[in-house]
Design brief:
single chain, 421 residues, alpha/beta, 7-stranded mixed sheet, two-stranded parallel sheet, 15 helices
Amino acid sequence: MASEYLNIPRTPPDTAFSLMASFDADPHPNKVSLIAGAYRDENGKPWILPSVQKAKNILSKSPNHEYLGIAGSQPFLDLAAELIFGQTLRTHRKEENNNNESIASIQTVSGTGANHLAAVFLSRHLHPARVFIPDPTWINHRSIWEDAGVAVVEYPYYSSETRDIDMERLLAALETTEENDVIVLQACAHNPTGVDLSRDQWRDIGEVVFRKGLFVVFDSAYQGFATGDVEGDVWGVRYFAERVLAQHNPDTTAGSRKTTGLIVAQSFSKNFGLYGERVGALHLVVPPSFSTGGAKSALAAIARAEYSNPPRFGASIVETVLGDSELRVQWEKDLETMSSRFRKMRGELRGRLEGETGMDWGFVERQIGMFSYTGLSGEQAKRLREEFHVYLLPSGRMSVCGLNEGNVEYVANAVGMVLRG
């Protein structure tokens, strides 16, 4: 019947956004939101990075509201690629005399748009049987790939017993993959656990990926924002990119029998504080013996059908900051301001939780970035919300950004009360 589209069952509301709405409606004077992945200052307020404010002042003198091209701003894309790939990109371009087409970039609607564009493109042109995503991971990873029609398989990532990477089971799961399967990896500040891979662990995963001919999609949402170290935060991305670009002859490359490519979904929401501007990029990297020309045109065709042109203003801010040496230095100071506050609040929370519970909460300080996987159950999270008006996700994921000197003791006391029953 023509009216069947009206009988579609309601989709359950998004958990995070539903909880944020509940928090906004909560009149309790001591309520605390530890939900959203957005930086807040010591007073719990949004913070405009000084580097961003200076860039906005510059742009206000010569506003431009015209459409960008479908692929976006080329200066922005060049700077974004330089940021994510660093010396890897510079060395490769020098070796290829700037004539290579093995790295292609397109501007996207933030990191979510880049992830979605990657899934649709690979579904149509790589035809993977499966995509392997971490367990646990950002909730949108599953939704995006299911929407693209690719079967989703979870691989073990985190052990609740050790509060660390479940490396043995992770590698065992990857051994079940087949050529052209896709594996999704988070570049740094793993969401939701805050537990990142070591360099040796990146190498171990790479050994399987390149031996089995898997396609890698990196989700890079927190470069520089995770630790303040712009270079170190994306070591894994650069390691994989170097391996891909070394595959001049995939049949004879040492340690590699199959051809591997990768995509990086890059977001500037967190590390520039541009949450509403939706600034992102997608970078496709393939061995130099192949060309990305056709692939880039296919990506542009998908973008054209979905949104035609990416947003200009946020990209102009990033382009202005990264393209100016003084603003770049200021931006790196801004990153340290944010990441150091994470570290400080993690330390204070750990100390107060250990005082409240007599338990070891050292893992809170070992985790990286804005999220902490607390180990609290869904029922305990519900009690925190209903009895103490402290809001965090049912998974126990806490956004450290919501903590400050004025509420950290209250939060620790509430957690202690819940754990004591």
